[in-house]
From TrEMBL:
Signal peptide span: none
InterPro entries xref list: Cupredoxin, EfeO_Cupredoxin
Originating organism: Fructobacillus tropaeoli
Domain annotation EfeO-type cupredoxin-like: ranges: 5-88
Protein name listed in UniProt: EfeO-type cupredoxin-like domain-containing protein
Origin: domain of life: Bacteria
Length: 89
């Protein structure tokens, strides 16, 4: 039975945490909440997962993360400078 798991990343000039882990088979949701104007993190993107979105201040933006395959996947700011990682294990 797939477990519903939501991980929230706080965006305040960096990603906290910058590594999130899901188990293979989880119904995984990755949520970003930007709480600071600092840095260049008003956009989040992931080439690995194929998402890109603005992060309005103090709003939660969620993405469904596929967990059918294990691996390490990246997300980053709009300029690909600040990076975080999703591990599916
Ligand atoms: Cu940036």
């Amino acid at each position: 039975m797939a477990e519903k798991v939501e991980q929230t990343v706080t965006v305040d000039g960096q990603y906290q945490p910058n590594v999130v882990t899901f188990q293979k088979g989880d119904q995984a949701t990755l949520t970003f909440k930007r709480v600071s104007e600092s840095g260049c993190l008003d956009t989040v993107q992931s080439h690995d997962f194929g998402f890109q979105s603005k992060l309005p201040l103090n709003e939660e933006i969620s993405f469904t993360i596929p967990t059918d395959q294990t691996g390490k996947f990246e997300f980053a700011c709009g300029m690909n400078m600040v990076k975080g990682k999703v591990i599916v294990q």
